Structure prediction request, 873 residues.
Amino acid sequence: MAWKINKITIENFKYFLTPFEINTDGKHVLMYGENGSGKSSIYWAAYTLFQSCMKEPQDAGKYFDKNHPDSLCNLYDTTNRRSGIEIEFIDDNNIKKSYTDGSWAFNTRDDGFVKLSTFASDFMNYKFLSAIFDFKNSMRVNLFKIFEDEIFPFLSLNDQVYDIRTGEPIGKSGVEDWWRYIKTCYETPGLLTRRSEGGVFVHDDKYYTYQNLISDFNNKLQVLLADIADDANNKLRDAKMPVKISLKLERAAFDKKVEGSLRSYDTKFYAPEIILTAKLLDSQGNVVANKEINHPRSFFNEAKLTKMALAIRLAIFDRKYQGTDCAKVIFVDDLLISLDMSNRLLVVQELLNYTDRYQLFIFTHDRTFYDLISDSIAQRNTANEWCYYEMYAIDEQVSEGHIPEPWMKKKPNYLQQARSFFSDYQYHASANSLRKECEKQLLRLFPKNWTLCTKNDGTVSVMNLNALDQQLEKFYERFSTEKILTPNIDQYRRRILNPASHNDSKAKVFRSELILAIDEISQFEKISKLKMTDEGDISTREFLFEMNGAGRNVKIEFVPLEEWNQLVYAGHTYYEDIEIEIKDKVGFNPGADKLSVRKLWRDVCRYTGYAEDAFPAMEIVIKDKESDLALMDLPAE
Amino acid sequence: MANLQGTPKLITQMAVVCTEKQFEDMCKEDSSLLKKKYVYLSTTQERNELRGGVITGALPKNNVAIIPQDCSAGYLSFLLNSLPAQYMLFEGKFNSKNKTKITKKLVSSLTIYDVEQSSQDAYELADNIREIAFGQYNKDRENVSYHRLYYILADLCNMLALELYAHPMFEEKGIFILVSWKEAIKEASDKNDSSLIFDALTKSDKRLRNELMKAHMLINDITKYINSKTDGVENK
Prediction:
């Protein structure tokens, strides 16, 4: 990810009247914003600037001209304030470049960097995913309109549109450019020659060039759609969804021959259609019945439709330019408002998979969804790669000059909150935040089944800090860390992480303890928990443990019965002790088929004659059977 | 980084262009000519169709023969089937005509690039694969997969040729089609896996695929450059 957005500045554009800045420091952005707080204006500001590189100055400039019918200037501007958008990009070497699309400057036009960034980036909102649900059961799913609005502006047809008067390329190759030009040719009076007003078209050079243009558009679009469908089907297969989708192009046409006639043409223009159909697959990936499902809406439930729509959307995204000489950004604005929470989680996980190659800006007005994403980010140990913002609207009744204005704050995590409250002498609040941070970190680190408890009424809930803390020592033992990395948590929990038990008279003791507690609890953030195996490997993935010594040759094959993780802290890696099941054994009898991997390792080391202080490391002698990689060399994420 | 080394020349400086009759006469004088590879080019060219290729033996009717002297027949075929040459053969009316007549005179006026042998081999390979894909597509034009495959390979050939004709602009914009095509060939050859060629053209993380995309995105600059040069050839 070479180039990233470092700062966006917006002035007198949509919701923002006075200059508004959002700084990212090159990080991903997760933003909660209540309705009407301006977050969508940020989305559209970025969209407008990216798109401007392909526009003529008058087209790009109209949004910043207060008197233009398409103006996007703030409605409260009474002083002819300048209007525009500025985006600053930064690369890995801290080199910056800035682009402006506004009434005072316009430097994106035909700029190679912005052009590549535009074709490498994407803007996703709810419209595409919900479009697939927008058809009545009896209707064919024609996606052309949604492609026209949401997809065509960002895809290329890999060939240039040409002028029908000269046949010469006009230097544009975007799908939108092709489609817009084709429509314009038909709609512009006099461009195609007619025998009389409203009469038949003359079959001259322009006519044939226009027919070639439409034919080329159809051919190229058909190839593009086949590409997208292929890629979407790969994604559906990876998601183990037994469906094969198809995007069939019903071709654009002009002046068709009248049926039954030899020389009459109908003079009409026919817009293309993109028809989505599906077929069911068996477990081998073969089509079950060769009957197409023409109305997916009536056949599949919402979760499956979501998966299909998402596969198509991400397949479209994967058609994009992926070089490293530009900024690659994904803006997501309330993408999932039509979906239930489980389907949203599905989409979020998919999106977060792109964070290593793209800079993400995720905007939402849904607090629960915001928390869901935030948790997913924490689960991936990548919270420090994100900026968290909250946006609110200051109501015009109380704002200065009675003009609605945005109010944005960087949302600190619990640890930052604790530090911030501490600096502000708010010790009780600091301790409360620290308690939340501690809970959050233990929930991140512990196996899931250690974090849930069943209540008397049979319901399951997440444990509180008291219950979690009881297991901390056991957790470190499980990874055989040389020492307890956070030895005083229990003490802090009892004395200060319950600030309600304190009063102001003890504030001095509380303050000094709080300093120590913040320091120790902040260590959790530095512990990375990485997976060596995942859920699908349980009971299936085979590992091999071979040791020779004292004239004994031992070879044992086993499978894990739990997920297998490693902890990385201060440059050291610690491997988890998990329950395993023996599948094959030669030269040694472990005494049980199911046992802990560390017990097995110790027993075999002793059996093969190694001294207690000279056991070969577990991560060296245990290997993944298929790849022959030692545990320490296995990719972990 | 210069990724192309070559000089523009008239095709007649690198090959002999002849009519059916002339070819027949030449073969009568030197029968070994019938065993050598040369390029045939149909006298009726149709838009977006391949109407020429490498053959040995007698020249089929209604074709012009181009006999290579200082280059390979495959390289000539690659050039003649690609977009820049097609534009020239259609005399600037590529998009407004569906057919055009080819004459010896017209072919003789083409300018081509004299490039090193390893590059000629790479161009020839691209043309060969395109021709195979065209054969499949031609048998079943309704098959979208065949269409797609041919389209992708035709695009590769067109961009490789365009890079020859506008290489200063490609270099200025940091676009290296031939270099990445050679890389893809080498990888496929080293791993003895021809499917890697198709991967290089289609997989989103592959350099060749992204270089082609970049060229398309910056096509406006490339077109302007070509238009600023006489016949698309840099004045040296």
About this structure: Chain B has eleven helices and eight strands. Residues 230-236 of chain B have pLDDT under 50 and may be disordered. The first strand of chain B starts at residue 6 and ends at 10. The two ends of chain B are 19 Å apart (CA to CA).
